[in-house]
# Entry
Amino acid sequence: MVLILRKCFKDGSSSYGFVYGQVGDTVTAPDWNPEPECGNGLHGLKQGNGNWYYLTGDDWLVIEVAEEDVVDIDDDKCKFRTGKIVYRGDKEGLHQFASVMATDSRSAFYWGREIGDKEIMIDRVTDSDWAYEWAKAIGDREIMIDRITNCRNAYWWARDIGDREIMRERITEPKWINDFNKLPS
# Structure
C-alpha cells in the first residue's frame, strides 16, 4: 500500500469536479485509464512527493492505495484507480504521516514549510537547491550551509543570505564568479 497526498474543497470536490468523501470512504475513478498521462484517474502526490503547487483546496486528504493501482505520471504527480480515505482535515492531522511522507528534498522542504515536522524533514533535504530554499525560508542555516554544493546555489546564498567568504570557494564557474564579483560589499 502507498499513501497519496492531495487536497479537496470543503464540499469534497476537486478542481475538476470529482467529489471525495469522508474518512473510511473508498473512492474510485469513473474513467480510469492506466496510461501515464494526466486525466482518467484520481490524482495526487505519491507518499507526498511531487509538485506541491498541485495541492489546492481547503481539506488535506491522505488516501491509501494498492501500489498496483498507482501510475506515476512524472516527478510531479501520480494518478490512481481506487483507494480508501484514511485522513481528511487540516494540516495538523498530517503530522501522524510525517515519518513516511515527503521523502525527497523538494517535498520535504514543502512539508517542513507548510505542515511542520521540521525535525523529521530537515534530514531529507539533501539537494543543494532545496537546502538553499530551506535556509532562506525556514532557517537552520548552520545545517544547510554544508549542503550547498553547486555554483548557482552558492551565489544565491552569498547574495541573499550572506556567508560570502564561505561561498566564494564554492563558486567555480565563470558566470557565477562574474556575478559574485558584482555583488555590493
In short: The first strand starts at residue 2 and ends at 8. Residues 2-96 form one domain. The chain has seven helices and seven strands. The longest helix spans residues 105-114.
